[in-house]
Specification:
Cofactor: Mg(2+)
Strand content: 5-15%
Radius of gyration: 19 Å
Helix content: 40-55%
EC number: 2.5.1.31
CATH class: Alpha Beta
Family: Belongs to the UPP synthase family.
Strand order of the largest sheet: 3-4-2-1-5-6
Structural class: alpha/beta
CATH topology: Undecaprenyl pyrophosphate synthetase
Number of strands: 6
Catalytic activity: 8 isopentenyl diphosphate + (2E,6E)-farnesyl diphosphate = di-trans,octa-cis-undecaprenyl diphosphate + 8 diphosphate
Number of helices: 8
Binding site for Mg(2+): 26, 213
Length: 251
């Protein structure tokens, strides 16, 4: 990832920019199929798009970038594709760790990673540990993640607290559940971008995006670039977020 020149020339931060952007990176396989290539080649091109998204986030001073890398439903894909995806994930971690450190990026994974092999788990733990004290962009990767899983594991933790007598059932509120989600220490999600033309959330951050702005594009993920990202940001800025309240009319 070569960010230096861009960062030196652009230190702006628009006060209305979203602080936390989450992206459903869809379309790698279809991109490859359209070009008559193997699906794994689409995923490799998708990794290049990830680096473009990170570069854009750094230039525009976004606080958090959450990427939906591998859902809990993706285990239903062909074994060869899953194996290739795991190898690509491991390679990306090992090859980019120095850039994460160099550009002050904190790396974090949300999801049930115990199902990954030990080598990949160790790569994840290593990247999280080595970037723990970084204070810049938080790069949040959702891997073996599902929104329903996240809510269930949060409920289990709450039940455990009730059984221990630490929490009374009458004191359980919305913020209680939020405190036990995998994103509990992160800013709320302001904007969700989905590439690939589909218009659904696919079990992604179901609780967290209740009032997030949504942006859909037909562009397949490997073709995602800074212009498309900027258009999503501009669309976000143009909207009035009311969070269930009334629209503010000028007198």
């Amino acid at each position: 990832m070569k960010y230096k020149s861009s960062l030196e020339n652009n230190e702006k931060y628009h006060k209305h920019n979203p602080r936390h952007v989450a992206i459903i990176m869809d379309g790698n396989g279809r991109w490859a199929n359209k070009k008559g290539k193997m699906r794994i080649l689409g995923h490799r091109e998708g990794f290049k798009a990830v680096k473009k998204a990170i570069r854009f986030s750094l230039i525009n001073n976004l606080k958090i970038l959450t990427l939906y890398a591998f859902s809990s439903e993706n285990w239903n894909r062909p074994l060869f594709e899953i194996k290739s995806l795991m190898e690509l994930f491991s390679y990306a971690l090992d090859s980019e760790i120095q850039n994460l450190k160099k550009y002050n990026i904190r790396f974090k994974v949300i999801g049930d990673i115990k199902y990954f092999d030990k080598k990949l788990q160790n790569s994840i733990y290593n990247a999280e540990k080595m970037t723990l004290n970084n204070s810049g962009l938080i790069l949040n990767i959702a891997a073996n993640y599902g929104g329903r899983w996240d809510i269930i594991q949060s409920i289990k933790k709450i039940i455990n607290k009730v059984q221990q007598g630490v929490l009374h059932v009458n004191n359980i509120k919305e913020k209680t559940l939020s405190q036990y989600l995998s994103t509990s220490k992160l800013l709320p999600v302001d904007l969700v971008i989905r590439t690939g033309g589909e218009k659904r959330m696919s079990n992604f951050l179901l609780w967290q995006i209740a009032y997030s702005e949504l942006y859909f594009t037909d562009v397949l993920w490997p073709d995602f670039n800074q212009n498309i990202f900027q258009h999503a940001i501009d669309t976000f800025i143009s909207r009035e977020r009311r969070f269930g309240g009334f629209k503010k009319y000028e007198k």
